[in-house]
């Protein structure tokens, strides 16, 4: 990462290509992440979006929040559509049918669109090596359809299809590790990021733009509505996710892993879970069990720091 | 100069996709479509065709990639069959609603289950409502001609809709026939450069595929209905233009020996050729039998069909697919065409050639006998499956 200390807020890119007027909930950090990503990507960008919150809230005809070309086809195929846009532009430039210039093609989707229904299309696009960025905005459930669990929902979280009850502690499976699945495609760049760490996010989007071939960004996207928490805590929760080891910020550049915000002293997981209603039902024993696993995963990541995976 | 050569229909179709200078081919293999895409990838590999061949991981992605490439302004071809078409189903409706002029060859094959790689029309009949222009070829020449024409029509800015060119799996796809292969110059003269109605352009950003709230969904559907219905004019016009350029005239509905016919049989696709031979044989014996060959399936050519049938009192309809629990797809369309007409034929329904079941001349004889019996005053029989092993 470029040293975060040399940045000042006014150096953050100022032009917006995802503009105000959209219908996202108060405190939505997913929409904040989308805006930040596109402040960096800039004007010469084409977006293919999956169905989901970000599509619904930004494109209610005749309104649009998109000041750059944007296409939505379906839920599970934004990686394929983006790969098509990239292929189309590339061959038209090769054949001299349109002028040669640099246009960044981006596919985007939620965790459901990415980790579940669209995993095959994503894998295909990554494997084929298209010169594109794919961004997963991970709010850890299917929010657009009413907070149903996805394979990216963390253990213990209550959703409308993994509810807490007499026989249930909420989600009974562990969060699927999509960034590592993306990295297993041997693509040049994979990174996790969070709008709670804007300069780290900016640096990663810039790197993703520079690589030749596919880049994958996995962005922590706090959803106060679905996580049943105060909207004003969205940024703080994003920091706690990193500080507790729940959502470590790292990048894998040409196979080499680097933890960008090393956190040798992990904060107690409780600090992260407490403000969120989705974890309200968890007893101390379960929290301790989750903490053990989260910290073990983080230590595993630490041991791979600097290694070529 | 056009060349007369013997070619497998699949290869002929692939060759003309090259003559049309397609920019992108995005496809996933499935029997009996494979020869088309194999040949195209060879042409790209050999540098005969400057195009991107996208070897996707599924048909769902094949069609999704097509959305992206056409939205970027690239002339795009794909081909599929059966399960592959079914897997595309979700996206097919969206491609047409987005007005993206993809051209797709459908090598018609039956749908599972049971799994069957052989020919019938159950794949395309399940996609009736996708909002595409859908047309059927009877032989290899038509398959290649309609592919060239497909690009011209699809990209016509009055239309800007995807086109599916159907040709029967194996019966056509794997059959070597003599064809007239046009030369590059005449194809280029017939097919102007692709100027999309809309494209994803960073200098003129647009939002494609927005949410259709209840306030506009109905209007969006009406607009789609209208543009597909009104594509009939450009269809006839471009088929005429094709005839001027290449000397082969195609019509939405064609007839054979219909002028003095007492009974007619309606066919679609390759069986139309066998049907003509069957008619010839019966005509020699004095039976006044004729054919209606339905080429255009969407937009449905109501008026042409009414004109083609004229005053003939008995019309047999051959369906190559069934709709379990309901009327067969082509027959129900034909009946709907005539329901409000004063002059309407008695319609006799035949289900024919499912999952590769052969339809020999003797089966046609049987159908003709049934039609003639109805003509002589016999009762209209219940819908029958022809060639069924009891
Ligand atoms: C094939 C298909 N299945 C289901 C849906 C319904 N659906 C639309 S968006 C969505 C969930 C989106 O979740 P995610 O991708 O995580 O995005 P989020 O809304 O959480 O940002 C679902 C289930 C659909 N549109 N298409
Ligand atoms: S439901 Fe969640 S992700 Fe969706 S707009 Fe609201 S806060 Fe954002
Ligand atoms: Mg989600």
Task: Describe the fold and architecture.
The complex is a heterodimer of chains A (309) and B (390). Chain A is of the alpha/beta class. Chain A is built from 11 helices and 10 strands. Chain A has a single domain, classed as Thiamin diphosphate (ThDP)-binding fold, Pyr/PP domains (Rossmann fold), CATH 3.40.50.970. In chain A, the strands form 2 sheets. An 8-stranded mixed sheet of chain A has the order 2-1-3-4-8-7-9-10, sandwiched between helices. In chain A, helix 7 (198-210) links the parallel strand 7 (189-193) and strand 8. Chain B has helices at 9-19, 34-45, 59-71, 82-97, 122-125, 140-155, 184-190, 214-230, 232-246, 271-284, 302-309, 329-339, 361-375; strands at 3-8, 24-27, 52-55, 76-80, 103-108, 133-136, 163-168, 176-181, 207-208, 253-256, 263-267, 289-294, 296-298, 314-319, 346-351, 384-385. In chain B, helix 1 (9-19) packs across helix 2 (34-45) and helix 1 (9-19) runs parallel beside helix 6 (140-155). The mean pLDDT of chain B is 98. Chains A and B meet through strand 1, strand 2, helix 3 and helix 5 of A and strand 3, helix 3, helix 4 and strand 9 of B. The structure holds thiamine diphosphate, iron/sulfur cluster (SF4) and magnesium ion. Residues 110-112, 139, 141-143 of chain A line the site of magnesium ion (MG).
């Amino acid at each position: 990462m470029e040293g975060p200390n040399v940045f000042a807020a006014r150096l953050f890119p100022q032009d917006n290509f995802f503009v105000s007027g959209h219908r996202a909930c108060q405190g939505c950090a997913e929409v904040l992440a989308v805006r930040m990503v596109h402040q960096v990507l800039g004007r010469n960008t084409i977006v293919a979006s999956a169905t989901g919150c970000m599509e619904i809230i930004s494109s209610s005809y005749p309104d649009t929040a998109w000041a750059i070309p944007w296409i939505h086809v379906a839920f599970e195929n934004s990686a394929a559509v983006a790969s098509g846009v990239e292929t189309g532009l590339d061959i038209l430039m090769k054949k001299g049918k349109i002028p040669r210039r640099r246009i960044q093609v981006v596919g985007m989707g939620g965790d459901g669109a990415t980790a579940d229904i669209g995993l095959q299309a994503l894998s295909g696009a990554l494997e084929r090596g298209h010169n594109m960025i794919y961004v997963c905005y991970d709010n850890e459930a299917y929010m657009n359809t009413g907070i149903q669990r996805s394979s990216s929902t963390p253990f213990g979280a209550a959703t409308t299809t993994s509810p807490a009850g007499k026989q249930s502690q909420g989600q009974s499976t562990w969060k699927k590790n999509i960034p590592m699945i993306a990295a297993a495609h041997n693509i040049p760049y994979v990174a996790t990021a969070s709008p709670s760490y804007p300069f780290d996010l900016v640096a990663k989007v810039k790197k993703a733009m520079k690589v030749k071939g596919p880049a994958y960004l996995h962005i922590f996207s706090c959803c106060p509505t679905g996580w049943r928490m105060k909207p004003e805590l969205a940024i703080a929760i994003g920091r706690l996710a990193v500080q507790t080891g729940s959502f470590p910020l790292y990048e894998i550049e040409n196979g080499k892993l680097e933890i960008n915000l090393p956190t040798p002293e992990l904060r107690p997981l409780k600090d992260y879970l407490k403000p969120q209603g989705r974890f309200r039902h968890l007893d101390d024993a379960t929290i301790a069990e989750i903490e053990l696993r989260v910290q073990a995963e983080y230590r595993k990541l630490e041991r791979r720091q600097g290694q070529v995976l | 100069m056009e060349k007369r050569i013997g070619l497998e229909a699949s290869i002929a179709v692939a060759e003309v996709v090259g003559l049309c200078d397609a920019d992108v081919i995005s496809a996933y293999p499935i029997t009996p479509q494979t020869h088309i895409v194999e040949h195209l990838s060879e042409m790209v590999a050999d540098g005969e065709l400057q195009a991107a061949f996208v070897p996707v991981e599924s048909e769902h992605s094949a069609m999704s990639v097509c959305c992206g490439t056409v939205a970027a302004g690239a002339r795009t071809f794909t081909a599929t069959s059966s399960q592959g078409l079914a897997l595309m189903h979700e996206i097919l409706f969206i491609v047409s609603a987005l007005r993206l002029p993809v051209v797709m060859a459908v090598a018609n094959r039956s749908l599972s289950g049971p799994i069957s790689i052989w020919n019938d029309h159950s794949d395309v009949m399940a996609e009736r409502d996708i909002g595409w222009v859908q047309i059927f070829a009877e032989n290899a020449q038509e398959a290649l001609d309609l592919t060239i024409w497909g690009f011209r029509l699809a990209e016509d800015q009055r239309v800007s809709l995807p086109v599916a060119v159907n040709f029967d799996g194996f019966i056509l796809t794997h059959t070597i026939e003599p064809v007239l292969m046009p030369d590059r110059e005449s194809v280029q003269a017939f097919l102007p450069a692709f100027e999309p109605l809309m494209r994803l352009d960073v200098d003129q950003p647009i939002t494609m595929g927005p949410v259709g709230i209840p306030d506009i969904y109905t209007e969006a559907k009406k607009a789609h209905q209208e543009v597909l219905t009104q594509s009939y004019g450009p269809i006839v016009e471009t088929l005429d233009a094709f005839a001027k350029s290449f000397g082969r005239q195609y019509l939405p509905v064609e007839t054979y020996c219909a002028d003095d016919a007492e009974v007619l049989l309606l066919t679609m696709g390759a069986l139309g050729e066998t049907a003509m031979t069957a008619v010839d044989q019966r005509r020699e014996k004095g039976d006044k039998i004729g054919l209606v060959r339905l080429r255009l399936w969407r937009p449905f050519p109501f008026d042409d069909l009414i004109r083609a049938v004229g005053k003939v009192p008995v019309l047999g309809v051959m369906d190559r697919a069934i709709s379990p629990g309901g009327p067969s797809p082509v027959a129900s369309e034909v009946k709907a065409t005539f329901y409000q007409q004063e002059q309407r034929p008695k319609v006799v329904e035949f289900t024919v050639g499912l999952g590769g079941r052969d339809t020999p001349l003797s089966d046609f004889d049987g159908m003709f006998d049934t039609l003639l019996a109805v003509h002589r005053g016999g009762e209209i029989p219940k819908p029958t499956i022809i060639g069924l092993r009891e």
